[in-house]
Amino acid sequence: MFRFLFFVLIFWVNFKAFAQENPVQFTETTVSITCQDYNLHGTLTIPTQKTKKMKVALFIAGSGPTDRNGNNTAGLNSNAYQLFCRAMAEKGIATLRYDKLGSGESKPANLKELVEKRDFENEVADAVAWIEYLQKDKRFAEISLIAHSQGTLVGILASQRTGKTITKLVSLAGLGRRGSETLKEQLGAQPTFVSEAANPLIDSLANGYKVKNVPQYLEVLFKPSMQPYLISWFKYDPADELAKLQIPALIVQGTNDIQIKVEDAKYLASKSKNATVVIIEKMNHLLKIVEGDRSENLASYNKPDLPIVPELIEKVSAFLLKKK
Fold first, then answer.
1. Is residue 35 predicted with pLDDT exceeding 60?
2. Runs of H (alpha helix) within 74-206
3. What is the pLDDT of residues 202-249, one digit of tens each?
4. 94 pairs with which residues across the strands?
5. Strand 71-72 vs strand 54-60: parallel, antiparallel, or unpaired?
6. Average per-residue pLDDT in the chain?
7. What count of Cα atoms within 13 Å lies in the side-chain half-sphere of residue 179?
8. In this structure, how many other beta carbons lie within 10 angstroms of the beta carbon of residue 187?
9. Confidence class of residue 115 from pLDDT cuts 50, 70 and 90?
10. First to last CA, the chain
11. What is the CB-side half-sphere exposure of residue 203 using CA atoms within 13 A?
12. How far is CA 127 from the centre of its chain?
């Protein structure tokens, strides 16, 4: 009996020591909003050590039906957004990340109908709705935006449309040039016949004209329901739009990103008086360190246990916590 109590005591002492060394530094709650004519769902991550003037950042995902954790059904399983937002909480910064329409819990009954009439402006409206949701929460004194990949342009436009609500903007592997130019470059890595067929279609859409007679192997990109979205996206130059903002912007780019180049980050910041560029060696598009070649890089897209780059967390948190 005494031996049993001794082991229980030892276990309790060790458990308390572990808990003190590894405290849970955040709480997470599920939240939802009604946006336009559908509901969107997300996760609010709050630091355990709250302050009277807590800073919060809305995290805006990249392209496609990407969920709040940075995953989608197209073969992406990285948990990049979840890992990033939890790391921000450990630095004392609250975050709100959400399932884009068509992903996670944001799948209304009329999803097919919504997607078929959806364009890029709808994604901006979704972000604006989440910003307005955060404005109503009295716990938060400042609202910033953290946006990934294509989400950077969404964040820039949402910031423009919410007046002086947004105090800072962080772009993570953000598109620096027009979507039409980026898409051409990405398709240029495919066999020559692909880009030769795709480029005239992209040019037509960039000029505001829908296209017909799309080759079967390109239908997934240029199907009729996608064309209004592409037309509305292609019309924006992210660097021009960023230059319209008067708030500080941090542009972060990795050298091992096979989707967006360092040159994109530099161009994105080139027209703004308030933008700072940070380059992180060996960081890939999903904000993780990759040492090897393209095949290893792609393999990392399905390794959710790979940690977020510590330097990234340090740079972003320092930027957000710095007084204006």
1. yes
2. 80-90, 111-116, 120-135, 151-160, 179-187, 192-206
3. 999 999 999 999 999 999 999 998 999 999 999 999 999 999 999 999
4. 56
5. unpaired
6. 91
7. 23
8. 18
9. confident
10. 62
11. 6
12. 11
Q: How far is CA 30 from the centre of its chain?
A: 18
- Sequence length of the chain is 324
CB 257 within 8 A of CB 283: yes
What phi-psi label fits residue 12: left (phi over 0), alpha (psi between -120 and 50 degrees) or beta?
Answer: alpha
Q: Give me the pLDDT at residue 267, please.
A: 97
Classify residue 235 by its DSSP letter: T
What is the β-pairing status of strands 140-148 and 54-60? parallel
**Structure tokens of 126?**
């979704």
- For residues 292 and 202, is the Cβ–Cβ distance under 8 A? no
DSSP 119: -
Place of tokens 């060696």: 281
Indicate the residue type of 294: R
Task: Name residue, tokens 């505001």.
Answer: 208
Helix, strand or coil, per DSSP, at residue 169: strand
List, for residues 195-210, the tens digit of each pLDDT value.
999 999 999 999 999 9
Tell me if residue 243 falls in helix, strand or coil: helix
The residue type found at 298 is L
CA neighbor of 70 nearest in space, from 40, 42, 93: 42
